[in-house]
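Pinned message: reference record for GTP-binding protein 8
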Amino acid sequence: MYENPYQKLKQYLEIPLLDDDRYFTPNIDTLVEAEKLFIPNPSHPIKFITAGIGKEKFPNHDLPEVIFMGRSNVGKSSLLKAIFNYVPELRIKTSKRAGLTKSAQFYGVGSKLCLVDMPGYGFGQPEWFEDVVHDCLRRRNCVRTFLLIDGKIGFQDSDDIALNALESYRIPHAIVMTKIDKATDARLLRNVLHLRNIKKSPIYCYRQPFFVSSHTFEGLGYLLAYIAHITGNLRIDHSDMNHISN
Ligand SMILES: Nc1nc2c(ncn2[C@@H]2O[C@H](COP(=O)(O)OP(=O)(O)OP(=O)(O)O)[C@@H](O)[C@H]2O)c(=O)[nH]1
Ligand SMILES: [Mg+2]
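Predicted structure (tokens):
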């Protein structure tokens, strides 16, 4: 839970893919601190806010928002469910069947931040998908978008299109490889290399991808710390030094 799976991949590389000094390297105390943000209590309720497909349905609040998008079935809702593991009453639905989540789902973490689970693109994609994504990404309080990539399957053409769109719309984003419990290290490395090849000089993409399993919770603590940090809820000394803010 508290380890960064990327550390394991590094041993296979002669030349590191990332310059570690420049990236997000929280220590264990910081990771434990960040996790507390996701544990509810009476003065810090974690709850479903609303679901909607039009901007008039979206909540009107000032909470910093983090959006989870990606292909249908990539594991967006499962990741939210894992993040909210301490809040089982949220009952986030997941399914083997692609296209389960049909609208943007907003979850509030006390008065600190809001996480948004999006419908997926690709198979089962609702016809108004692009409008919802567009409306959500354009929200003024959206601080980061996570683009989820299935770690076992790797980047598909639609993922490359999404990546390029995020860059050209100047939307600060980061990559999360999901289902790493099912992916080989070789596959994960290939995914990272692919990312490097298509993002030669990214400005809006955080260069360090995250690796998670929503089933085993590998990599989750590290992702939680990043979310806490980018939403202004966690100070870190040797933190994200990338040229996008935070
Ligand atoms: N092994 C494994 N399976 C996962 C993981 N995350 C999700 N899954 C499975 O992948 C399937 C799809 O998960 P969802 O979370 O519903 O995917 P989604 O991206 O929300 O899909 P849509 O709402 O249809 O866009 C489910 O059968 C999950 O159990 C993971 O980390 N490991
Ligand atoms: Mg879903």
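Pinned by admin. Summary line: Residues 26 and 116 are 24 Å apart (CA to CA).
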